[in-house]
Structure formats: structure tokens, C-alpha cells
Amino acid sequence: MTKLITPRKLSILPPLDPGFVSPVLWERAYLAQAKTESGSFDAVLDMLRPDGSGKRIALLSLPETEDYREANLFRIERLVKLLLWQVGGSRILIDGPASWAHALQQKYGESGERSFDNEMIGQQVYGQSLQFEQAELTGTPAPRLTAQDIGGHTQGNRIGFDLGGSDRKCAAVINGEVVFSEEIPWSPYFESQPSYHIDGIRDSIERAAKHLPQIDAIGGSAAGIYINNEPRIASLFRGLSPESLDAEMRPFFRNFSQDWEGVPFQIANDGDITALAGAMQQGEGEYLGISMGTSLACGYVDHERRITSMLSELAFVPVDFQPEGPRDEWSGDHGCGVQYFSQQAVARLAPLAGIPVDPQQSMALTLEEVQALADSGDERARKVFQTIGVYLAHALALFAQHYAIKHVLLLGRVMSGAGGECLLKQAQETLAVEFPDLAGQIQLSVPDDRLRRHGQAIAAASLPPLTSQ
Q1: Which residues of 317-344 are buried (b: 16+ CB within 10 A; e: fewer)?
Q2: Is residue 1 assigned to a domain?
């Protein structure tokens, strides 16, 4: 008979989602059971990238019996999903039962339930399908994440740009001070010609360059996954054919320096740039940035205020272990971050609060309507943002298991107005009650005016070190 893992009851329930299952509390219940069962064993998982870098996780596991087989497989699969999108990797070694590697290979194969993850992380990011292997890892060196010397370099005459879905921003920066900045509207998402993107980026840089005596470095930010300055997954270029992306856009970024007299160039995920901007202003590292808007965007900088090589695409990380949690329409998975921390979350929760929602209108408009209700003191709207606040506290406890975190910067449209204030307050209260050790460790904040105006541009411009440094 299969035994279920039952976490303790939440002290603070999400008002609109009483069935929510906290991954951290579920894991604690699992480990408590494993410590009492004879036959529990130690397993090891290595998440590896093609270059051999990666991350190792040691796992005390329940006996591989009929009682616990289902819980064991659920646990290892959810962990794999988290690591694929947080760290990145294409080869997963498991020192544990052979049935684990076999089941995961089936699930993440090209025709499996998790084929989306195989295609996006395996094939698009790393150019190879995901491979799961049973391996003897005892006594072998643990893989490590590669370090990057990018971010926090302010010396010289620099240009920073940020490519968004509705505008492209660009700034000229001299020794960390913005001397020129502007936003130019554009609509890149469904443009099928690479020249639209390339000409627009060049135009912005040329405009900023007029305000500098010379260009010493150029840095940029955009949504998506960039590896070696190449877009591997980028919603910005969704209108391009795979052939155009591979033949024109990737070489454009890869050879970017050549167009500007060989100056150092670096582009990074916009979530990482947001975290870097906060860390530069705060003067401290271990900074996690979380933007709740159209989707969920995240980024991280380490204790040295440097962007790491982690992907940090937390929109696809499981943050709820409900068997029937909300389904992400893109990946097909249940309980992942995008459905809990974005305008999609607000649109999903509003009807549960008794707020009528026109299913034909955009989720952006629904967010505006719910925020207006929150601004007017509507209790139904408050419950929407309180629910997201409870979610956030439990997600932060999960993220803290995989990042060293001192600061969390919260931004994006969902954080606007009274709704955002309610969300923040509820997250702080829930952390204090459910995870008091973390409440004293992690500081939650929202961006101030200076960070909103210039932080992103300064951070993007600071990405590449000068060749003389």
C-alpha cells in the first residue's frame, strides 16, 4: 500500500487556495519519515552541463519499497525539474535505484510528459537531449558552477541597453553616472525580419554614443537565456524562424564587439540585471530579484555581487506540490512559479475571490481592475494579493535552499499600488510565522525612484570588465 507524505498544516493559509502544499514543508515531512524508517538510504544527484560544470545534491531517501516508491519518484522528479531551470544541465547522473533514472528518462524524453523541458533546456539551451544515467558517485569530485567576472564594473565610458517587449532603453554612463538615457518604443515580438532587431539595437547604441568621448564597454539585458552572448531561449525573438535566429541573431550578438571597434561586450538575462542593480545600490551581494509581471522573471548575484552562471528561470520551478495545482499552458506542468507570481496568478485567483472576470479580456486588464479594487479597499482584491503573499513566503523558503539570500527585490506590475503593499506585508508576516529563521535573514524590499530610473542601465553597462582590468 502506498503511503503518502503529509506535511504539517500551515499556520497561515492562502485565503483563496487552502489546498496549497508547501514544497519545503513537504520535504521536511519526508525527511522526518526517512529518519525513522529502517532501510532509508543516501542517494546523490549530479546536474551537469556539457562543459562538466553543475551542481550536486545529496538526498536521504525513504526505502525503495511499495510503501514509498511513489513518494520517492515524485520527490526526485520535482527536484530535477527545479534544478533544470535554476541551474541548467543536460546530463543527470543519479546514484540511486536504477528505476529512478529509467522513469525520469521516460518522463523527460521527446515523447514524455516533460518533453517541453527536454526541448527547451536540453535541445535549445545545450544542443542535446536530456540524458538520465545511473552512476556510482561516491568518492567522485562534486561538480561546481562556473564563475563569471561580469557585473559591477563602473570604470570608463560605457553604454547599457535593455531590450523590452514594448520599448528599448539605452543609456550612456561615465564612471557609474548616467549622462544620457532614453526609451524608444518598438514591437519586437512578432517581427519576422532580423534586420528590425539589429537595426533597432544599433540605432540605440549610436544615439547613446554621441554623449560619450569614446566607448570603453557595452552591456545589455533582455529576457531569456543567454550563453556566451548567444540567445538560446528568447521571447524577444519569437517572431523569427529558427533558421533566422541561428543564422543572423546569434552571430550578431556573438560578434557584437567587432561592430564597435572591439570593445568588451556582455549581454545577460534581465532578471540578473535587476538583481545586480539592487546589489550595486545596496552595496551587498546575495541578492535575489523577483519581477512579477506578464510572467515571472528572476535573477541573482552572489556574495561578491557578480552574476552567476545559473539560469534562474524560476517561472518553471515547482512552488506548489498540490497534485492538481494550476497548470501552466505552455509547459503543461502543474504548480510552477508563473501561475503563482504574475498577472496570470491574479487573473486565476480573482474569480475565486468573487471578482467577475471577462475571460475574453487580457490578463493585463484584469490585473489593472483588481488593483483598482485593492486601491479602493475592496476585501476581495486584498485576498488575491494576500494569497500571493503566502505563496511568496513559501517560495522564498524553497529558493533559500538553493541560493544564499540576504536581500529580495520585488518589482513588476503585480507589485504596484495597495495590492503590492498587501502582498509584501503578507509575505513578511508569513515568513515570520512559518519560517522565523529566514525572516531574520532575508530582507524584502521594493525599488526606489533612483533604481527605477537608472538602476537597470547602470547595471547593464557595468557587465563587461575593461580589457585593462
Answers
A1: bbbbbeeebbebeebebbbbbbbbbbbb
A2: no
